[in-house]
């Protein structure tokens, strides 16, 4: 479950401020966030992932208040519990696709990389149609292939929360449907919550709830 209350966030150099009086999302819910460009949707996902921390208010994920954690604890919490599909993929250039998919196992204490995890990574790659690209580095992959690597990385830990920032924006219609089916299927298996930013209104019927960002900032 996600619980946000009295959130007030500003970037250090100023300019943009995000205030969210209240937002509650039940565990297992599939929620889409829509809204104009630059309104703060990515910033909200970053706050839910603990990549940014607000000066005022709190963000609680599965009972854990993120601002009560140190940077190191937040990083570990994120790697173990959250699958984040970044808008710009955020792949590591120095790692090949397979190593990128398994990246959470490099950084989270307590996550053990064993044969079962390796098999899961391969199976996810196969389901996404990138199984023959796993030895390549991101620079030798198309945008759509990089996006699918990022999706596999977000799912490999079987997280309780999936944050998706335009997660299928670079995919053709057929692949988009395939990947979304996979995302929803894996989330359902794990009882995971999905919080997805999208500009693609054709996808909205797939979600339980749609949040219009402009309304969220006033009240939700
Ligand atoms: N690191 C930063 N420092 C200062 N301002 C930032 C930073 N990152 C984003 N912003 C500003 O914060 C505002 C919200 O950005 P954000 O990326 O959250 O919007 P968005 O709704 O996700 O946009 P889009 O739909 O275009 O992806 C924008 O005005 C942006 O310029």
Please tell me about this protein's structure:
With 220 residues, the protein is of the alpha/beta class. It has one domain: P-loop containing nucleotide triphosphate hydrolases (Rossmann fold, 3-Layer(aba) Sandwich). 36% of the residues lie in helices and 22% in strands. It contains 8 helices and 9 strands. The strands form 2 sheets. It has a 5-stranded parallel β-sheet with strand order 6-7-8-3-9, sandwiched between helices. The protein starts with a strand and ends with a helix. The structure holds adenosine-5'-triphosphate.
Helical fraction equals 25-40%
- Assembly of the depicted chains: single chain
Largest sheet entry: 5 strands, parallel
Question: Widest sheet: strand order?
Answer: 6-7-8-3-9
Distance between the termini: 15 Å
Protein name: Putative ABC transport system ATP-binding protein
Keywords: ATP-binding, Nucleotide-binding, Transport
Organism: Citreimonas salinaria
GO molecular function, one term: transmembrane transporter activity
Keywords:
single chain; about 220 residues; Rossmann fold; 4-stranded antiparallel beta sheet; globular; binds adenosine-5'-triphosphate; transport
């Amino acid at each position: 479950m996600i619980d946000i209350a009295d959130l007030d966030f500003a970037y250090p150099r100023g300019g943009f401020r995000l205030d969210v009086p209240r937002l509650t999302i039940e565990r297992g819910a599939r929620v889409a966030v829509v809204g104009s460009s630059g309104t703060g949707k990515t910033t909200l996902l970053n706050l839910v992932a603990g990549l940014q921390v607000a000066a005022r208010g709190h963000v609680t994920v599965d009972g854990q208040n993120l601002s009560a954690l140190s940077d190191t604890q937040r990083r570990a919490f994120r790697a173990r519990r959250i699958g984040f599909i970044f808008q710009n993929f955020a792949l590591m250039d120095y790692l090949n696709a397979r190593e990128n998919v398994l990246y959470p196992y490099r950084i989270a204490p307590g996550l053990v990389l064993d044969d079962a995890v390796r098999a899961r990574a391969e199976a996810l790659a196969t389901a996404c149609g990138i199984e023959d690209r796993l030895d390549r580095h991101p620079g030798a992959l198309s945008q759509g292939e990089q996006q699918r690597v990022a999706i596999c990385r977000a799912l490999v830990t079987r997280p309780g929360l999936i944050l998706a920032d335009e997660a299928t924006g670079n995919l053709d219609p057929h692949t988009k449907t395939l990947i979304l089916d996979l995302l929803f299927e894996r989330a359902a298996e794990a009882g995971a919550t999905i919080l997805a930013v999208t500009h693609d209104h054709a996808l909205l019927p797939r979600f339980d709830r749609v949040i219009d960002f402009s309304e969220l900032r006033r009240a939700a």
